[in-house]
Amino acid sequence: MNKMEAPVHAGAGVSTDLRFRLLLCAAVVTIYFSLYATLLSIARSTPAGGAMVSSLPAILVAVSMVAFVGLTGIFVFVRRSS
Amino acid sequence: MIGRHLYWLALGAVGFLVTSEQAVAATSVNSIARPASFEMWAFFSAFFVLTIGICVWAARRSHSTDEYLAAGNSITPTQNGFAIAGDYMSAGAFLGLTGAMYSSGLDGFFLAATYLASWPVVLFLVAEPLRKLGRYSLADVLASRVDERPIRILCAICSLTIISFYLVAQLVGAGELFGLLVGAPYRIAVGVAGAMMIAFAVFGGMRGATLVQVVKAVLMLIGGGIIAALCFARFGFDLNRILTSAAHAHAAGDQVAGIRGFARDGFATTSLAIGILFGTAGLPHILMRFLTVKDERAARVSVFYATCLIGLFFLLLLPIGFGSIAVLHGDPTRTLSNGGLVGGANMAAVHLADAVGGDALMGFIAAVAFATILAVVCGLLIAGASSATNDLVAGLRGRPLSERSRLTTVRITAALLGIIGVVLAIAFEGQNVAYMIALATSIAASANFPLLILAIYWRGLNTRGAIVGGTFGLVSSVALTIMGPTVWTKVLGLGPALFPYDSPALITVPATFAICWIVSLASERSAQRKAIVAN
């Protein structure tokens, strides 16, 4: 026997707020695994012992970090303005 | 009075444990013979005095359980943001991630990105609901949905297990760092550091831990910024030059600038990532921080500040991590005959500070790192004590403790947890602390996260579903973690691992969700059938 309704999902259907939360969550997971797939692809396409050292993977990881911070900013400031 | 006697008894037990192990510790591979410089002592002493001052100031205000565990909900969003960032920029982040980059290059930086990615998840899914429903722990949220007594007991067991893993990781870092500072054997260093942290937790409470975190987060960002700038300056402010030098110095060559360890096994990577991404939202000491602010908006804003600060700090790890490879690899004064770094790979950041900034910067970084471990351990002990007292003891008794005995019990429990942490840290000597934290988050993702999410977002969760699912998540994640390569092979030395992966989250997280869902539905239908028959 439940003592109370789920606090965010009370009532029928998925609320706009919950949809927004899940959308941003999906964006984080997508960015993360896209980054992983890209890094994996770069690693596999680079022959061992090559002459050049590429800074691209490190820059991609850094850009992804900035994107994660940006998503939290969107959540906090877009929700506040709406 | 009794609590105070038990506290001193606890400290004495730590001292005895450490002394009895002294002879064995003297032969430790990671023992440091380097004498501490004047600058190191000066910074360390200044930080020690500062933290003691904060502890005494906070202790005078911690007369109630509310004040001790949640700082009376009086922490501002900015303070809380810095404190959360301070919690996360712990031994695992600064020492462990730099150590991971020193050993594995970009893999360590990718691990940092994984940790950062977990913060938006915390913000989007749990921060506000937790503040709305919680008082002292995440069990408050679950108790608002299902039967209070069994769920509090389960939550307490989950929280204490997770905190134990996390605590050990911090104490391993503290022992290595303290050993590096004073030249003490590892076991003595862990014992002394542990005793200081227990004292701080018992007297300072959440307000003391928060204020130390705020001060330390600022100083750590400054220190990290200075090391990163000096590293960049050493290589002409050219990232490619740092990477090229790192590739020349590291055994992996140019592969060090790309993903390597993660690339070998997609399952292991995904499992570790799932564990970290969702595990942070199940870490008791992090969740407890949302209960120190006044409302949901404050919780939301504080996570945003924390994410910005953590992101900035992790970006600094790029030059610091690759700089540590370029500068420290092959340096005979900093490496052992077996190729390892003096003091262990976790000390890469401290050695790098010495290499690029001399004794003064090394002393500053070592002191800041020690202060952060102290504050994180303090937060862990408080979170564990809160869970044990408010959830486990109250759940087993069937009624809450009185205000006076609750505060005493919380303090005694904090001391006991600290002693257990010291014993375990001695057993886990030499393990990479960032990786150990990943294991703790993996258990949090499997045990706490599914329960918390279902309690907040799914109205169908009932007591039976929560208990069966939560128990499965905890037992399966702990069992598989113990049977994994790090614990089974490296720590216990029992031969080849029974489970091939360190993080079981990819199996246990979905399974816990599924079991909670299936058992809740099945038991609800069974109850409905009984009701129909009865009518």
Can you characterise this structure?
Chain A is mainly α and 82 residues long. Chain A has helices at 16-45, 56-81. Chain A is elongated, with a radius of gyration of 20 Å. The relative contact order of chain A is 0.11. Chain B has 22 helices and no strands. The chains are: A mainly alpha (82), B mainly alpha (535). The interface between A and B is large, with 52 and 60 residues.
Q: Helix amount of chain B, in percent?
A: over 70%
Q: Tell me the fraction of residues in β-strands of chain B, as a range.
A: under 5%
Quaternary: heterodimer
Share in helix of chain A:
55-70%
Shape by Cα distribution of chain B: globular
Total of DSSP H or I helical runs spanning 4+ residues of chain A? 2
Number of helices of chain B: 22
Distance between the termini of chain A: 36 Å
Rg of chain B, Cα atoms, Å: 23 Å
Number of strands of chain B: 0
Average pLDDT metric of chain B: 82
Low-confidence stretches of chain A: none
Compute the number of strand runs of chain A: 0
Structural class of chain A: mainly alpha
Uncertain segments of chain B: 1-33
* Principal-axes shape call of chain A: elongated
